[in-house]
Amino acid sequence: DPTIRAKFAPADGVAYLDTATYGLPPEPTVRAMRDALDAWQAGTGDWIADWDRPADAARASFAALIGATAGTVSLQPAVSVGVGLVAASLQAGEEVVVPADEFTSTLFPLLMARDRGVIVREVAFEQLADAIAARTTLVAFSLVQMQTGRVADLRAILDRAGAVGARVLVDATQAIPFVPLADAIGRIDYLVCAAY
User: Fold this and answer.
1) What are the b/e assignments for 112-134, b being 16+ CB within 10 Å?
2) Which DSSP symbol is given to 10?
3) Beta-carbon contacts of residue 25 (< 8 Å; ≥ 6 apart)
4) Going by C-beta distance under 8 Å and a sequence separation of 6 or more, which residues neighbour residue 21?
5) Which pTM value belongs to this model?
6) Count of CB atoms situated within 10 Å of the CB of 181
7) 149 — phi, psi (to 5°)?
C-alpha cells in the first residue's frame, strides 16, 4: 500500500524487511518523539498531560484488550524487564519449567536466576503441561512462539499449574490480539507483552 509505505523513510538504496526487533519508525511516531524532545529541551513539557495521562490511557486500552482491569497493568520498558522482576522474586531451590526453545526475552532472565540456586528445567514445547510437577514453582512460556508460530496449550498448562500450585508467566507478545485471553486472564499470574 503506497499510503502506508509513504509513512516510512529508509535511506536511499536501503531495502528494509520488516522485523519486530528494531523496526523503522513511521513518520507520525518520529513527529511525536521530536515534539516530546523539543518540549523537554525547551522546558515546556507537561509530564502529566504529555506522559502520565497517555500512559494511563494505554494501560486501560491494553487491559480492555485482554479482559483485565487497568489497575493490574504495569508499564515496563521491555518484556525481559517484566520477566526479570518475576525471576528476581524466585528463591533458591524453586523450580521453573520453560520450553527449551523459548525466546530469549523470557528465557535469559530466568537463566540468570540459576546463579541464585533457582532450578530452571527446560522441556520440549509440546510437553510443557505434562512437565509441570509438584515441585514446580513457576512455568514460563510464550503463548505463540515467535520462531515457529506454534501455539501453547494454555488451558492444559493452566489446569496442570493450578493442580500443583505453580504460578504461570505468559509472554503474549506474538499472541495478542489474535489469541483471546479474556476467559483465562484471571488464571495467569504474570502476562508480559511487547508494545510493538
Assistant:
1) ebeeeebbbeebebeebbebbee
2) P
3) 8, 33
4) none
5) 0.86
6) 22
7) 80, 5
